[in-house]
Amino acid sequence: MTVGRREVKGRIFEIQRFSLHDGPGIRTTVFLQGCPLSCRWCHNPEGQGGKSILSFQPDRCIGCGSCFRVCPHEVHRRVAGRHVIERSLCQGCGLCARECHALALEIVGREVTVEEVIATVLRDESFYRISGGGMTLSGGEPLAQVDFTEALLRAAKASDLHRCIETSGYADFSAFERVRPLVDLFLYDIKETDPMRHEHFTGVPHTLILDNLKKLHSRGAKIRLRLPIIPGFNDREDHFLAVAALAASLPGLEGAEIVPYHPLGLSKLESLGMICPSEAETTLPEATTIQCWIRQFAQCGLEVKVS
Amino acid sequence: MADPANMKSVCFADERTDFEGELDAYFSTPPLDIGPWERDLHATCNANPQGSPFQHKIFGYRFMAEHCPVHVFRHCPFYFELNTGRHRTDLGTGGLGGWLKREPFGQALSASSDQWLVPCWERGLSHSWRVLDDNHHTVSYEKVLHRGLRGLMADAEQEKVRAGSDPERDFLQAAIAGNQALIDIAGRFSAEADRLLEVETEPHIRRRLQRIAVTARRVPAEPAESFYEALGAILFIFHVLQSVEGNGISVFGHIDRLLSPYYRRDIENGRLTPKEARELVAFFLAISDVRYGLRTPASPWHVGTNGTITLGGCERDGTPVFNEITRLMIETHRDLKLIDPKLNVRISAQHPPEFFDLLADNIVNGGNALAIFNDDVVIPANVKMGKALEDSRLYVGGGCQENVLENCEINSRATYYLNLLQVFLMGFCPDSWAFFFDRAGLQAARYEGCSTFDELRHAFLANLKAVVGAHVAERNRTEREGVRFNPCPLHSALLDDCLAKRRDMMEGGCRYSSGSISLTGIGTLVDSLFAVKTAVYDRHLVSLEDLRRLLETDFKGEDVFRNFLVNRIAKFGQEDEDIRAFSAQLFAEVAHASSGLPNSRGGRYEASLFAFRSFVDFGAKTGATPDGRRAGEPLSPGMSPSRLAIGHTASVGQILSALEPLDLTLYPVVAVLDVKLPAARGGLSPNAVVPVVRRFLSAGGSVLQINCVDQEMLQDARLHPEMHPDLVVRVSGYSSVFVRLGESIQDEIMTRTMVST
User: Fold this and answer.
1) CB-closest option in B559, B566, B731 to A264
2) Cβ separation of B652 and A18 shorter than 8 Å?
3) Of chain B residues 651-670, which have a CB less than 8 A from chain A?
4) Which of B446, B540, B575, B704 could form a disulfide with B372 if both were Cys (CB 3.0 to 4.6 A apart)?
5) Where are the domains of chain A?
6) CATH tag, A9-50+110-306
7) What is the pTM of this model?
8) Mean pLDDT by 10 residues, chain B (757 residues)
9) How far apart (Å, rounded) are the C-alpha atoms in residues B685 and B618?
10) Is the peptide bond before B496 cis (omega within 30 degrees of 0)?
11) From the candidates B556, B575, B651, B654, which should be mutated to test the interface with A, based on the most A CB atoms within 10 A?
12) What is the CATH number of domain A56-108?
């Protein structure tokens, strides 16, 4: 049975409207769930897996106990007066979140149709038209759900919206080939240029990422490099030099922008019951540090902007 | 005016410190003791007990023109300060100019007004100034500039021939005397400048004083002939007229429309350079902040509602206005980082893109002192009230945003606020409002026994009509006495058609004599009624009686249900089709219930939704509401969605789309929407603001206030996170609601904002 393109389903964890930093103009960014990488600094940990995750924000909890009563799996327990969540038992069914009127418990990640997503995106259509913005697919890794991603892009194209994808680059090139004609601008992450470090910090080798980048470039795709800079991980001169060399090898790039690390992911990790990497930075880089990175890149011959 | 070609241009930047220091030193001294003068005036009246209030006003005009000191500032090119003993923060209603209100008759009227109003305020039902609105007004600057005060006096003289009664003759005579007083006062500025010149040695100040000495002998008695004279005439009228009349003016006029011809002529004739114009505008604009002490830390007056200038919009024939002066005013205001006068900017889809860009730039780089008016809604709204299209096209914003037609309208508003939620809650407990209904001879409708939601809604609307009616009746009772309380023949002479009708503006002399009771909390009201409909009538989750108990106990022990009301029932500002339809109906019904009643001056009441501070003040006195709002929390401001409604999913697009189903032409005195935009790293791009303004216009909004998030707000959000659920900040790579972030990130953003602004 064929499914109409607009009925294609996929998993997302957020739709961010009035987004100003995920491509040109005012945009709506759709965050798709599921990512083949597991970066230690990931700021969207809820986007890593492909399942619904229970998020708990204790400051909102009013202690009503509804979740204790409705959970069929005894995930919620009170231990010494504290609300303890036994995540290994959680099936992500969402019964507790439905009863949690204080919104302390929420299910992050849901299955949606292309139709639903596009309806939301189109609400701000006038913003895109005037500002030169549009829709950005981010994640997670959008290409990990290539059917859904392709269908979203087609639907956006049908409505004449500008389309960006923010990608880790880690996908079979056939996925790139499917979406390439539908994408106006690729926001392509370069996280680490040292092969050993890349694998150590992201969990995957970087050869595929670099190969895909070169192939995509050779086929004439419009690409902007996105450079997350994470103190202690990749704020090194040799990395900056390697990035600059990479950029130089790709003439006609639509610029490069650094994405300063922010520790928002850490508070998310806590609410999602995930473990915080011990070496993670807990503060944002100072404005002066960011200016310093920009200068360092400039010395390497690469002009970067700040996302 | 002296030949500017020989005049070294005055550089505001170099002189700003001296200018501000001089004005601040002058205005921070305690007000002049006017007690003896006022006793003299009252004695004169007592000696003439048969004299009409107009004749009494004439005594006052002459007295002030003779006795009140004029002050010329060395570091300012304009003349505008007549010391009538007004307190620094007075809005033109006090000082010697308001002396007649303190006659026994006026005092008795004030006291009787208080007797009615105070209990309403104590119960959080309404808030009002006594007797009438003696502020927020404008004058026809156009008349002053084009005809001069002598021209108006000639008009009054002509009308005297036609006058058929003593009151008419008295009125016209007083109008003449008032104008003569202003001319005499201007003459004294000239003499004062001459006196200062005797000792002044600084060359550029000597030139300035010489110019004042020459100009004040002629302007505003005669029509203004140059850009400098036009600016000066506006300032003079704004400050001196309200001091003398005891009636507040808060509008500097539709200033780009008024000034552009003078500017162009001077530039063409080589009498003025753009740089000189910029300097003059800098002085013109910079007076307010220091005069009202808005930057003085100890000032008790923080609200900054002292003056507004209106820009953009259109001419009488509909031609869009956007010219050199529009740009000059907006850019100078931005560069000087001023608080006051506030910029009321009128715009429509007919304006050129450059105007939108200029506004966006001001929003991103300015000090949140700007309101945007949608001409395509505000003009038709006024036409709907029976005003001529040509007149409606010349509206200006008042002290805040409440509009008024320049040249020909006295619209009494922004002094009378009504708490919609207190009216709504009445239906649950009408007996506790017996004091109000008994004295009005009315009976409150009660919700008890309403078997359908429509019955309940109609009960609410009946109460709203009754409460509005009672307030209007009381206002009419006191306002009717306005012509004895403080007739304003001078002010009247500067408004059409008082002279032609030979009637004071206080008794209907103006072409339009509207009034408005501004309604507070409509967002919270929509949400509360919708919650009753959903929870009580549609889903039977709670009985009306139980809901009443929950509200009375402020949801004590019922946190779950309160959270259900807050988070699980649709609210105004959310993109739910049911609430959109519901809000459209209620906005219309509320407008109809609060408009159309006649006032005492031959005009009618018009609907409006602006809040000043009432949403906080009323909120503090209002019990819990069915939207889940706790007792004491603020109500929704203006026509904006409540904080509970925009909650954790704030998006500018979402808030603007709430406008689409509404017909805001039913609110001629405007409905104000507040939107906050994120402060991005390195500043928000104007490119992101223009689409917001355009969408506001196309969605049918009335007035928009955009705030770029500032430091103070961030600090407040740290202390009171529950008050700022919609404060969106750029983190890095994407945005987040500020109060959801961890402390260290909040710290960083606060530091960042402080650095970057």
Assistant:
1) B731
2) yes
3) 651-654, 657
4) B704
5) 9-50+110-306, 56-108
6) 3.20.20.70
7) 0.92
8) 47 94 94 95 91 95 97 98 92 90 93 95 95 93 98 98 95 98 98 98 96 98 98 98 95 97 98 96 94 64 68 98 97 86 93 95 75 96 97 93 94 92 97 92 94 98 97 96 95 98 97 96 98 98 97 96 97 95 98 96 95 84 97 91 75 92 97 75 74 96 81 78 64 49 61 37
9) 36
10) no
11) B651
12) 3.30.70.20
